[in-house]
Design goal:
The protein is an alpha+beta fold. Helices cover 39% and strands 11% of the residues. The protein has six helices and eight strands. Strand 5 and strand 6 form a beta hairpin.
Length: 185
């Protein structure tokens, strides 16, 4: 099945024959590019700033930035004059990645998450894990309510006096077979 567009969502599938959607899928297939989008979500950043923040060669960073610009995940803002008079182009995330679903992209997101939390003090992480047993109707309800809640906070925009946070959620089937029946014979 190919990509589906609906309700402003873009679903990327590897077998889609749409060149634009294939390019978008490739753009989001890199944990480094996902981290670039996160860094540009609330502040415009130049190629040089991004390279320094992520410990990457500026030439390599430029390739990744151009990939994100060419697929509409980043947008160039008005050039500005840097500290030594050089022309700098700041980039800002467009928010398109929030509207893009990658059904086979979970390993990329997990790797991105692991890179993001590397070096953080464990006290800074608030992690939970729980099991649920849901029928199809309640599973759909959970997915919809989670999406609505997250989208509500995203649509509010950033708080001018706020600190930045990342939120990573995963909903997956649990390999938890039923216990053998212990009914009397």
């Amino acid at each position: 099945m190919g990509a589906r567009r609906g309700e402003d969502r873009i679903v990327l599938r590897p077998d889609d024959d749409d060149a634009d959607l294939q390019a978008k899928g490739r753009a989001l297939s890199s944990p480094l590019r996902m981290r670039i989008l996160r860094l540009c979500a609330f502040e415009s950043r130049t190629n040089k700033e991004l390279a320094e923040l992520l410990g990457v060669n500026p030439g390599t960073m430029l390739h990744h930035v151009r990939t994100l610009v060419n697929t509409d995940f980043l947008v160039a803002e008005e050039p500005r004059t840097g500290a030594q008079g050089a022309r700098e182009v700041p980039y800002r995330a467009t928010g398109l990645s929030w509207k893009t679903s990658m059904p086979q992209g979970s390993p990329i997101l997990v790797e991105t998450f692991l890179q993001q939390i590397e070096g953080l003090d464990p006290e800074q992480l608030d992690s939970t894990w729980m099991g649920l047993k849901l029928n199809d109707e309640h599973l759909d309800e959970l997915r919809e309510r989670l999406y609505e809640l997250l989208n509500e906070f995203k649509e509010r925009g950033p708080d001018p006096d706020g600190a930045t946070y990342s939120l990573f959620t995963t909903l997956h089937p649990d390999e938890n077979p039923p216990a053998p029946s212990t009914a009397p014979e």
